[in-house]
Specification:
35% of the residues lie in helices and 17% in strands. By secondary structure, it is an alpha+beta fold. The chain has one domain. The strands form 3 sheets. It has a 4-stranded antiparallel β-sheet with strand order 1-2-5-6, covered by helices on one side. A 3-stranded antiparallel β-sheet has the order 3-4-7. Helix 4 crosses helix 5. It is globular and about 40 Å long. The model has no long low-confidence stretch (mean pLDDT 93).
Length: 166
């Protein structure tokens, strides 16, 4: 299935085999997202995903990364955060755009973009190796405060990287 639109399109569908732990799954088929700029984000078959690229404190606010309209974006984000073949800022922006492509509500998509941008995986090339610079995870109270803020403020997605929520 390919869905086209201002936010890009998905190629294929998420077909996965759940692991016995009920937490991880392995993709059985490749799945991709092509963003509005025609950059292709691939989640190859045999990729293992677990939703861990979305800070767990936000699951109580937005739901599990394996359900709802943002599942496709979550799968692609997990794969991109493991491969770390592109800069983390681009990976997190792709997540927002893929959420919108999947018809995630704009407020929910912005909450999740804020969550991954400010608390999600980060990395930096240091010589010939990647250095992990992931910040401290947020608390459940932080997640609720951030969700309340987005529910009452109309913030442009482009402002999210520099946004500091009181």
């Amino acid at each position: 299935m390919t869905r086209r639109g201002e936010w890009g399109r998905f190629e294929g569908r998420v077909v996965a085999r759940w692991h016995d732990d009920g937490r991880e799954m392995t993709l059985v088929e490749p799945f991709a997202y092509v963003d509005a700029a025609e950059s292709r984000w691939l989640a190859p078959a045999e990729s293992v995903v677990n939703g861990a690229s979305i800070p767990r404190a936000f699951w109580s606010v937005i739901g599990s990364p394996f359900t709802g309209s943002f599942r496709n974006a979550s799968v692609l984000h997990d794969v991109a955060c493991v491969s770390r073949s592109r800069p983390w800022k681009l990976v997190h922006r792709m997540f927002y755009e893929a959420c919108r492509c999947g018809r995630t509500n704009v407020v929910q998509a912005k909450i999740m973009y804020y969550a991954v941008y400010h608390f999600g995986p980060r990395w930096r090339l240091a010589g010939r190796s990647l250095r992990d610079e992931t910040p401290t995870p947020p608390s459940a109270a932080d997640a609720r405060r951030i969700a309340r803020y987005f529910a009452t403020h109309d913030i442009d997605a482009a402002a999210i990287p520099s946004l500091e929520i009181p």
